[in-house]
Amino acid sequence: MHTPSHWGRREIVDVLVTDPPCQGPERDVSEFRTRPSLSVEPMDEAEDDGSNPMRDLVDVGDIDGLLDLVSLDDIARAWNRYSDTPQPKSYDHPDWWAIDLFWDPGVKGYTALRRELIVKLLEHAAPETIGAVAAGPLEDFLSDDEDDLRWIEAEAARNPRMREALTRVWIATDVTDATLARLDAAAGELLPRPRPPSEWLPELIAYKEAEHRLTEVAGNRAAYDRITDPSDEQKSAAAAYDAALKALLDRGEG
Q1: Can you give the pLDDT at residue 54?
Q2: Is the pTM value of this prediction over 0.70?
Q3: Are 210 and 166 contained in the same domain?
Q4: H/E element holding 7?
């Protein structure tokens, strides 16, 4: 399972990788961690007995069952509500299921659903929350896939919130130059570019090396969390990753 602050941590890593002044808006990391909820009105998603049917369905990967119970608007409202929750965040938050949903293999493999959900997230997000959508579901969706690129271009042409979100994604190292140029055009301005590795902080270099090692032996941090009986090698790689990440975050917040 991903940690509740997964995207907030990613914000700091991205800021440290990007050359200031970046070719795009700077990210204020605190924006995604300390604001009160602005996107939607509070709503108790849990039952009186403490159960949470949405969480239970996501936990077992029953996406069809979830969609029978809630609408895409409901999912988007819950996602934004959780994202707007001040730190410390918790897996026990009644809306955590909406965050966890986006890492479900059934959703990741369902392109049409992911597209609709991204549009709904942006529709229901407060202006201050658009960056969180960009840093999470939108960044995870973007790739060199031609059909997805054409969809992004068409959606950005008619949706100003999509254009704004694109200006806040940090995707330059994950796509080809040709794709990045198309995303620049769709956004209407240049997306952020990374600084060269020769200018990276020592903590960032150590983090990237630890991340690569963990990916080799366990997939990534989220995949490791789902391993019920990790090997000693996997445990060691995860511990090294966590230590490197902490050192990087301490440097970024210092």
Answers
A1: 94
A2: no
A3: no
A4: helix 6-17
